[in-house]
Amino acid sequence: MANVFEVLEKDHDEVKSMMAELETGSPPAREGESRRTPGRKQLVDQLIMEESKHEAVEEQYFWPVVRELVPGGHELADEAVRQEQKAKFTLEDLIGYQPGETRYEQMLTGLIQEAREHIAFEEERVWPELRLVLSPERSVELGTKIERAKKMAPTRPHPHTPPNPGLLKATSPLVGAADRLRDLVTGRARH
Ligand SMILES: [Fe+2]
Ligand SMILES: [Fe+2]
């Protein structure tokens, strides 16, 4: 079974590769385009969905453990959650993304840069500290919880919901279900 670092790293790697693909500039969506070569809008949608789910489950399960176990964990978690909140507002704006529009492309460029910095903050500043204090058993337990929660997590960023772990845990499955239904209706879930 995967531990929490392996679970989160898999997500980070996925996001990093989507961002790299967006930077190289995949072509705009076309009618009948194959699923294996998603267009730019589809790729942005995927990035929004992936990041929304990832940050939601970190806020529910990961940051509370950092706060509990890591010396100086509150400061690290506060900074990371601040970065995540900021990103959620940009992700929300990007939902209306249309490839090629200057405003959106600029937003996307900014998001990619900040997402890289955020991932580096987590992997380089937080993970090494947590590795020192998290037992292997608890690491696997946390990884399992995160993997499970991600299946039901919101696929939209919800920047106006306070990043309170208890509140998010209580509302996440409902909000996630509503998001998935909306994804289905709008065709967003097809990609
Ligand atoms: Fe994060
Ligand atoms: Fe992360």
TrEMBL record:
Segments carrying the region annotation (Disordered) are: 20-39, 151-171
Superkingdom per UniProt:
Bacteria
All copies of the Hemerythrin-like domain together span 5-129
Protein name, UniProt field: Hemerythrin domain-containing protein
